[in-house]
Amino acid sequence: MGPKPKKPAGKKKISKAERQRLLQEEEERRQKEEEEARLKFEKEELERLETQRVEKEKWRQLEQKDRERRNEELEELSLLESCFPEAEKLKRETRALAQWKHYTQCDGSPDPLVAQEMNTFISLWEEEKNETFEQVIEKSKLVLSLIKKLKLILLETPPCDLENRIIAQHQGSILRLQELLSLKMDVATELLLREASTLVDVDSGNMEKIIRDENVSLFVWANIKKNPRYRSVKFSETQIGFEIPRVLATSNVALRLLYTRYDHVTPLRLTPATEEDYEPMVVEPVKKEEPIEKATTEEKTVIEEKASIQEVEPEPKQEREFSLVQEEETNLEVLEEIEVKRTSDHEDENSETNKYELEMRLLSEAVSAAQLHLVENIVDIPYAFEKFQVDLCHFSTLGGVYHLDILELPPQYKPVKGWVLVEIRQEGLQRFTYPPETTDEPDPENAFPPIEVTLEVHKDVIFFEDPKVIRWDTEGTARHQEGQRQGITAGKRWKTDGISCVYYDRENRLLTFNLDTLGPVALIQDAHINMPYQSWELCPLDVNRVVLTVTTLFIELQIHIKENLCMLASVKLKGQEHQCHLEGRWMTPVPFILALKEAGLNIFPALYSHFYVVVNNKVPLVEVKAYRQIALLSSAFVFRWSKWNMACNSTNVVIKVKEYQAEGAENRPWSLLMFSGDRAQILRIREDSDVFSEALKDNTEFHSTLYHMVKDFASPRAMERVRSSDSLFIDSVCHMLLSIRVLSYS
């Protein structure tokens, strides 16, 4: 055996004293680090507390300064916001002037505001008989104009100026005109069908008639030949037509497509008087102040008149002295009367001034209430819907109504020995029931399949998605006609059942579908398809002129506003320019809003829109105050959407703002401004910051109004432009902001 290997040398053992020394050094180092950390923490805490104290003291000083000038700022804002009642007063005068002009024109058309004239017009038209379709179309232009005027009266007039009686009167006139117009078109269609046999087409042997107008288009086909193989009905020079089953091809029927640009089928949406406590105010014109010289002239005249009365024959000296005394006393009495009259005139002037101030104050309250009503949200959905019934709060009809009817062919004209004989039925135009209500055992040759219909979609209506087809429930109509006549809205019976095989040719704007039974048909689109908005901007263009740009998922709209007028400047559809028939047409705000809605460009939330759109609803009063003050400043400042508006709570709004300058405006920095209705401040964060903070920007203060907040960094020229803005212009800008609600729906 070899020698055993040596054990490797182990580590040197640490003595107990050495171990104790190392542990003590480690403990001392740990205690030193803890002490340093404690001192650092205490220092940082002291610095933090000092910073908080300084911030609180600074905040307290700012609040104190804000309280000291709050009343002054609110008084100045109140003076600036007097433009809103002034604008309403001007609009009232414009409405009164328009009524007077209508009265002086004497053109034979009734005044829609006068119930007696409307009743007379309707009664006289009811008595007119045997009107052709062309005559009815010509008369319909006046009727549609009257309906439009009545609707605008209900929409434009503040609630305080509308009594419930007047609302019911105007709505009743609208319904009577709509019903009479529909009746007249039925009668005219019957007259046309009586002579169908004389208007037959040589090739087909059937009658075809097309009458087109701006608001109404009529397509009529009468089955004269009754050829069972002739099932495809196409109107000449169009793609419009029907594919009919055998049973109709062999029946004595006519097909009618009556297309109306307007919608008189959907029940009239009521306009309740929301401000029932207000009574209509009788505004008396303010009298002009009489010049001071007038009193002096009156004084001289009265004295001379009194003196002339005293002129008599010469008297004895004593009597003459007595007469002089009497004359002096009379003159004193006259002077006292003049003094009393002066005092009375001064009191009258004060009374007139007080009356004017009271009128403007009441008008201001009425305008504020109407503006607040525009941004209110209802708590519950107002209607309960049946199966297949269309929710007209969610969807809106577009492009008018297509009245599809199968009509019984009336007796035809018969020439007899130079005379033309015709049988006239008292019941008038009759609908042909298809499919029949009761049938025997089904016969394969006489089945009742759906009818295929092809329609043209009007070129002036924009559909962002394929349109949905709905039909009017004629069975429910009869049950609800009386309720509609009384103003009850329970008769909304647009439904989606009974419609199949829908195909939309977007390029040619042709819509093909199958209907189980014919009746009124309409196209609908989601009323909130362009909500919420992706961004918005309000930018000055010139004195009393701005452009409001609203960008949504599908479109970008540019709206120009000047004085009391609005205009659609451009439409970009998915980034591409789109020609719209409304471009370049100046209209007052309410007709402008209605026109955009009818064209499918709906960017105007309703009271119930928050049920269908995910939005950041702001407190209504805060929203109204913000819009009013943005409108006041719109002549000189640019306002834009900010992403932080969604991050703050519902009691605050956040917007970007900067002063507008024709040159170098893009290079000027934006300020983030937060407003709570009672306080405005510039935020320290920027638009590209990572976290939202309400911290105040350095070297800035907060104010009670947006106006005084931007005044801190604005140039004198900008503030002069603000103060010189026209009242109607400010009111129009505010109305558009209130209607679009950019702060809650973007």
From TrEMBL:
Gene Ontology molecular functions: beta-tubulin binding; microtubule binding
Disordered: annotated segments: 1-37
Residue ranges of domain IC97/Casc1 N-terminal in the record: 29-229
Basic and acidic residues biased stretches: 15-37
One Pfam family recorded for the sequence: Casc1_N
Gene Ontology annotations for the cellular component aspect, listed alphabetically: axoneme
InterPro entries, A to Z: IC97/Casc1_N (IPR031826), IC97/Dnai7-like (IPR023247)
Ranges of Basic residues composition bias in the record: 1-14
Family membership: Belongs to the DNAI7 family.
Name assigned to this protein: Dynein axonemal intermediate chain 7
Source species of the chain: Cricetulus griseus
Lineage: Eukaryota, Metazoa, Chordata, Craniata, Vertebrata
